[in-house]
């Protein structure tokens, strides 16, 4: 069996798992390799692991893999969170949310002692922005929120940016697990991601955006014949 770059990164992240840990489970095709691998590791090594999924999809995968899931309370210590990304910059800043899970992913990444990103080489970029930035917005007044986004982005030098409400193949709006809409913003190039994240999250109606700035402790990129690990 040939190992894909995504799987290679996921297998490397499994090396960070220790008995007794509470682990955040990311969302997407790369995180799925980690979840399946974690299930195998728990069975083979008899580990005591509790996990918190960042989406209904990852919840279902984890249950299938036999991983014990918990709902965190205020005392919960999340030792490790492992998740994929849509783009990873040289500084370790991320774009996430291609699978509409950005809010739950950010809540868990923010709470985790160690946030590890796993990705294939195609996700590694010098500057964020080629991947349309997912922005999660409240359904109420969504058209007004889109207008406010457009106005703010124009003021920040992103005039005429294409903003689209995400639809599925049947033409219905895509909803996040929390029931919100997702707007994809084709920015092309994000020069100041720190300022942009703050400006986006200040707009009433914006629940959160897919910029994860300075959050990753470690990025593991699967390559053709190994891994490239970056620590921040
Ligand atoms: O909302 C989805 C997540 O942010 C994913 O982690 C991201 O889209 C990467 O997914 P994949 O590993 O499938 O490329």
UniProtKB/TrEMBL annotation:
Q: What keywords are annotated for this sequence in UniProt?
A: Isomerase
Q: Which residues bind substrate?
A: 27-30, 83-86, 96-99, 123
Q: In which pathway does it act?
A: Carbohydrate degradation; pentose phosphate pathway; D-ribose 5-phosphate from D-ribulose 5-phosphate (non-oxidative stage): step 1/1
Keyword field contains Isomerase: yes
Q: What is its EC number?
A: 5.3.1.6
Q: Which GO terms describe its biological process?
A: D-ribose metabolic process; pentose-phosphate shunt, non-oxidative branch
Query: Which superkingdom is the protein from?
Result: Bacteria
The active site of this protein is located at 105 (proton acceptor)
A molecular function (GO) term: ribose-5-phosphate isomerase activity
Keyword Cell membrane recorded? no
Against InterPro entries, the record matches this protein to: NagB/RpiA_transferase-like (IPR037171), Ribose5P_isomerase_typA_subgr (IPR020672), Ribose5P_isomerase_type_A (IPR004788)
Spell out the SMART domains in the cross-references: DeoRC
Cellular component annotations (GO), alphabetically ordered: cytosol
List, alphabetically, the PANTHER family matched: RIBOSE-5-PHOSPHATE ISOMERASE
The similarity comment for this entry is: Belongs to the ribose 5-phosphate isomerase family.
- Matching NCBIfam families: PRK00702.1, rpiA
Report the HAMAP family cross-referenced here: Rib_5P_isom_A (MF_00170)
| Entry function | Catalyzes the reversible conversion of ribose-5-phosphate to ribulose 5-phosphate.
What is the protein name stated in its UniProt record? Ribose-5-phosphate isomerase A
Organism of origin is Parvularcula marina
Q: Which gene is transcribed and translated to give this protein?
A: rpiA
